[in-house]
Design the sequence.
């Protein structure tokens, strides 16, 4: 329940981050579009003003001053053809700005009859203002019917219009406000997107980081959930496994108090041997758990001695045959000329014992195990091969993980720490372990340990 709650909370948090990112990007997009729209409107107004001056006096230069007129009636002797447009700044503050606009439109309509707007010239003037505002993109101008939205005249040469257009404000060309002039930017996003590039890249990187973090967290939570379950199973099975030898010990002790067994030396010896075997098994399991705990804490140390590796293997095989019901077939092929090895004897014995025990545990009714001892380069090697249940390919990578069991059967119980212990001890000695297995065909484990001459 705890892991599910954390997972849902994480997904919700990432979702909120994505939503916030999308909102910020959209806001930035709107801001850039609005800014470009304002700049385009200013360019449109400046272009129209400049063009109006040119139409009033085509012969004058652009830098010549023009006579501006402000007021209600022209003073005598003033040539009104020199006027450009009525500016609200020269009017009484109480005068409605709409009146000024209407007068400007009326003047445009009057002037336009004699000097109509020339769109190529509009484009030429607009191009100058656009460059001044660092707007370097294709554009065109057009005159439209504002009632029908029909284009009456356009400077666009290509008939294939782009679907991505940005329109300037409309300059009315008649009093009825049915005809207007405007500029049109083609593909304006090419200016907006570069301005947003840093934000888009940052958002993309943040999104990737959030997705990866969520993936890592979910994988970690799943791993913790699996580990928690495996630990619970492990402690349950360990307690069960320890109960059995303790029960056998208790039974043996109780039996030794029986007068009939006391006087019977054969039965007494058998009971003592059973008790001793159970104590040895429980001790080895306890030592294995203690070694793993010490290794994880960095406190584990090897106590190396020189011993006969082949003799250890033969003794363990003899013991396995004696204690396993059903007379198992365990063949040993010894190719070692020099079986001496410098290692921790107790732990190496436990490693080999675990391999043999697993081979027996996961065999079928007929137990057939082949063990090979040989030398390869500077390593002494042992191969333990069985014809039992086998391991699927997808599980080969996890069999050495702590608490992991991939071949659970009703007759084969375990803790999921045996192979993990084997791998750690072998690697602690500077060796390596390999496994080759096929489901329902059997498994082969190969352990390679350095020879004496490799140990300084």
Sequence:
């Amino acid at each position: 329940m705890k892991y599910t709650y954390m997972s849902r909370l994480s997904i919700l948090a990432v979702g909120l981050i994505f939503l916030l990112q999308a909102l910020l990007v959209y806001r930035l997009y709107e801001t850039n579009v609005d800014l470009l729209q304002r700049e385009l409107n200013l360019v449109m107004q400046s272009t129209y003003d400049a063009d109006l001056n040119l139409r009033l006096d085509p012969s004058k230069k652009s830098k010549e001053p023009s006579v501006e007129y402000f007021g209600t009636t022209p003073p005598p002797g003033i040539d009104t053809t020199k006027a450009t447009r009525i500016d609200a700044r020269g009017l009484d503050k109480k005068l409605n700005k709409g009146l000024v606009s209407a007068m400007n439109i009326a003047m445009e309509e009057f002037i336009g009859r004699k000097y109509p707007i020339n769109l190529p010239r509009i484009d030429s003037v607009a191009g100058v203002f656009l460059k001044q505002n660092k707007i370097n993109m294709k554009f065109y101008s057009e005159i439209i019917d504002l009632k029908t939205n029909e284009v009456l005249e356009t400077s666009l040469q290509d008939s294939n219009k782009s679907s991505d257009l940005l329109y300037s404000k409309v300059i009315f060309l008649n009093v009825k406000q049915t005809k207007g002039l405007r500029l049109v930017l083609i593909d304006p996003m090419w200016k907006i997107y570069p301005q947003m590039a840093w934000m888009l890249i940052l958002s993309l990187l943040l999104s990737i980081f959030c997705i990866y973090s969520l993936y890592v967290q979910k994988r970690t939570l799943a791993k913790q959930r699996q580990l928690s379950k495996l630990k619970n199973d492990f402690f349950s099975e360990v307690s069960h496994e320890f109960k059995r030898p303790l029960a056998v010990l208790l039974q043996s002790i109780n039996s030794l108090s029986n007068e009939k067994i006391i006087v019977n030396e054969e039965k007494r010896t058998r009971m003592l041997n059973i008790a001793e075997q159970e104590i040895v098994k429980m001790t080895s399991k306890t030592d294995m758990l203690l070694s793993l705990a010490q290794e994880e804490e960095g406190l584990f140390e090897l106590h190396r001695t020189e011993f006969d590796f082949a003799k250890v293997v033969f003794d363990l095989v003899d013991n396995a045959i004696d204690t396993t019901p059903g007379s198992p077939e365990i063949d040993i092929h010894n190719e070692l000329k020099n079986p001496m090895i410098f290692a921790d004897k107790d732990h190496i014995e436990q490693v080999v014992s675990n391999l043999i025990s697993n081979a027996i545990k996961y065999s079928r009714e007929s137990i057939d195990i082949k063990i090979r001892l040989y030398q390869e380069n500077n390593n002494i090697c042992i191969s333990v091969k069985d014809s039992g249940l086998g391991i699927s390919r997808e599980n080969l990578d996890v069999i050495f993980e702590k608490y992991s069991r991939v071949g659970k059967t009703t007759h084969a119980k375990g803790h999921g720490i045996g192979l993990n212990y084997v791998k750690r001890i072998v690697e602690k000695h500077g060796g390596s372990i390999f496994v080759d297995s096929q489901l329902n065909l059997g498994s082969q484990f190969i352990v390679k340990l350095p020879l004496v001459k490799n140990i300084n």
